[in-house]
Amino acid sequence: MTDSATLDRLAERLRSAHAVTVMTGAGISAESGVPTFRGTGGLWRSYSATDLATPEAFVRDPRLVWQWYRWRRGIIGGAEPNPGHLVLARLEARMPAFTLITQNVDGLHQRAGSTHVVELHGNIWRARCVRGCGVVRDAAGEAPGDGPAGEQDPVPVCSCGALMRPDVVWFGEALDQSRIDLAVQAAKGCQVFMAIGTSALVYPAAGLPLVAANAGAVVVEINVDSTPLTPHAGLVLKAKAAEVLPALESRL
Ligand code: APR
């Protein structure tokens, strides 16, 4: 099937759907200039996940971990939502029931106008106390004076005295159960499930399209490459999200 025929079929499915669930990964933000994790130019090609994105890495070298997250925040802070994010925000507004699940921590969906976003892997703009005192805005954790005077790249400290950490899910950590529950419910209850820009390798997120398929939804993959999900998807659009989503919207 050509992309155009697939888009027509998908538009038809969306028009008749009551509930639509979308799950995004790093690929949706690629055209905003935010690096993905895997594939050409992916972060895990140049950096070691075990040095930067595990609880052990933070215990070993919290300053290095914070440096890396500050660097990423610099890139994300200079990025803008792209047409793919914007179409998803408008889809939310026009569908009777719409859930946007994202593995991304960049906050670009919210900046595009999406309001109901299930952030499975947290958000890079927040920091939280390692001791569990509750979430605080990252900006507070970054305020001058939080590190010893004059210190370069200070590690933010909570008012309780414990270190602050980025409020993201690291390898080896459990996801927030209430977010998983919301995501599973949305996967089970939709007629169309779109997996956009994810390598479909990291669980539990990678299992959600299969949950949706087992519950009878048509699973749609939008990705520039094939993934382990591709053979299970009912409709496949091998294309850039920021290009194909506007083409889809124009058919609705
Ligand atoms: N449009 C659509 N898909 C794209 C685009 C694009 N413009 N550019 C890249 N892709 C696809 C790639 O082909 C790849 O399959 O996006 C996917 C990105 O995969 P990953 O980098 O593995 O990102 P993701 O699936 O979100 O990773 C999951 O792993 O380390 C982590 O916690 C991190 O949330 C992340 C998780």
Q: Can you put this structure into words, describing what you see?
A:
The protein has helices spanning 3-16, 27-30, 43-46, 49-52, 55-60, 62-77, 83-94, 108-112, 138-142, 177-188, 208-214, 241-249, and strands spanning 19-24, 97-102, 117-119, 122-129, 135-137, 164-168, 192-196, 218-222, 235-237. It is an alpha/beta fold. Strands 3-2-1-7-8-9 form a 6-stranded parallel sheet, sandwiched between helices. A 3-stranded antiparallel sheet has the order 5-4-6. The longest helix is centred in the N-terminal third of the chain and has 16 residues, at 62-77. It is elongated, with a radius of gyration of 19 Å. Mean pLDDT is 91; it is low at 143-150. Bound molecules: adenosine-5-diphosphoribose. Adenosine-5-diphosphoribose binds at residues 25-27, 30-31, 36-39, 42, 103, 121, 197-199, 201-202, 222-225, 227, 240-241. Residues 25-27, 30-31, 36-39, 42, 103, 121, 197-199, 201-202, 222-225, 227, 240-241 line the site of adenosine-5-diphosphoribose (APR).
Distance between the termini: 19 Å
State the helix count.
12
The Rg value, from CA coordinates, equals 19 Å
The largest sheet is: 6 strands, parallel
Which oligomeric form is depicted?
Answer: single chain
Q: Level of helix content?
A: 25-40%
User: Which structural class do the helices and strands define?
Assistant: alpha/beta
Bound molecules: adenosine-5-diphosphoribose
Strand order of the largest sheet: 3-2-1-7-8-9
For the residues shown, what is the average pLDDT? 91
**Residue runs with pLDDT of under 50 for 5 or more positions:** 143-150
Q: How many strand segments?
A: 9
